[in-house]
Amino acid sequence: MEGKGDGGMEASVGRMGNGALDPLGLMPDREGVLRVDDGTTLPWQEFGTGPAVVLANGIGVRWPGLAHQIGVLRDRRRVVCWDYRGMGPSRLGRPDAEVSMGRQAEDLIALMDHLRIDRAILGGWSMGVQVSLEVLRRRPERVAGFVALLGTYGRPFRGAFPAPVARATEATFALALRFPALAQRPLDLAVALPGLAFRVLSGAVFVGADADRRVFDGNVRWVQQTDRRVYLRTMLELARHDASDVLPRVRCPSLIVCGQRDHLTPPRVARRMAETIPGAEYLELAGATHFGLIERAEDLDARLAAFVDGVWGRS
Q1: From CA 53, how far away is CA 73, in angstroms rounded?
Q2: Within 10 A of 215 (CB to CB), how many other CB atoms are there?
């Protein structure tokens, strides 16, 4: 059916047929598509009822990447996810549509308006942490709690690597944007040979050998299917983004989670976040990489559920 979202933004709501995507057997209770002011379409998914928890994903990843966390929260909370602009089934309103972290945050605010969510706990994984911080910059009164899952406040490559390596990494993504077909080939190979790809990536400690392969392989497939130009433009925006000035101004309850072996958003970055945000809680997942949410799901989800209960009250 067709309708108007809050703020005069066009919205269309309909079943997306996403239930079969998730290897853990989850299926959204409600789903639809929001068309925002620049014509971009944003598919969204909703699970459960009650006070809202909005989960912002990693770059190129769809909601099944957060299946463990959705599963533990959906019985007592209203869990909302959405697809970033130009990723998954989302379609940009025009090829050069803005994909900055600030624009992603505006999308989330528009989605909250459309779904009539006044306040929510924002939980972000990886890129989702930076998107959530931009919501905190713009509309802090809409955020009841903040959870940073294995992410950073900005300029991730400069936080993870020595300056020359960080600059080289950013330059590599800029070069790949000029030749997107070359960037596509390793992802095609990873999808064609998932066992080999996983062994290589786990050997490089990009992901832990004990990660949930069902979820990880699904993440790789979704990234592989994302338009390379959109993905690389978003990655460059991610690399340039900096919300360090937001951290000392956060006034809502906050939980900062990192992986002990996360080389992309390392513990020293997470500790700085926890020390700078007033009253923030800190959790370091033993032995976990950047994919700690599917390596140490049981430990993480217990702490996440307790944090959510602390903000919204037990039910």
Answers
A1: 8
A2: 21
Distance between CA atoms of residues 16 and 24, nearest Å: 18
Residue with tokens 């309708």: 3
CB 235 within 8 A of CB 59: yes
The Cα–Cα gap between 315 and 303 comes to 16
d(CA 57, CA 281): 21
Q: What sign for the dihedral angle of Cα 290, 144, 27, 42?
A: negative
**Where are any strands of DSSP class E within the chain?**
2-4, 10-12, 30-35, 41-47, 52-56, 78-82, 120-125, 143-149, 254-259, 281-285
Residue with tokens 């057997």: 25
Distance CA 236, CA 282 (A): 28
SS3 state of residue 124: strand
**pLDDT tens-digit readout, 30-63:** 999 999 999 999 999 999 999 999 999 999 999 9
Q: What is the pTM of this model?
A: 0.91
Say which residue the tokens 């050069």 belong to.
96
Residue-wise pLDDT for 251-265, tens only, equals 999 999 999 999 999
Q: Which domains, from first to last, does the chain contain?
A: 2-312 (3.40.50.1820)
Picking from 250, 247, 242, the residue whose alpha carbon sits closest to that of residue 276 is 247
- Output the six-digit token pair for 56: 């912002």
Q: What is the dihedral of CA 30, 33, 37, 39, to 10 degrees?
A: 170
CA distance 3 to 10: 7
**Which residue in the block uniquely carries the two structure tokens 């900096």?**
242
> How is residue 19 written in tokens?
């239930």
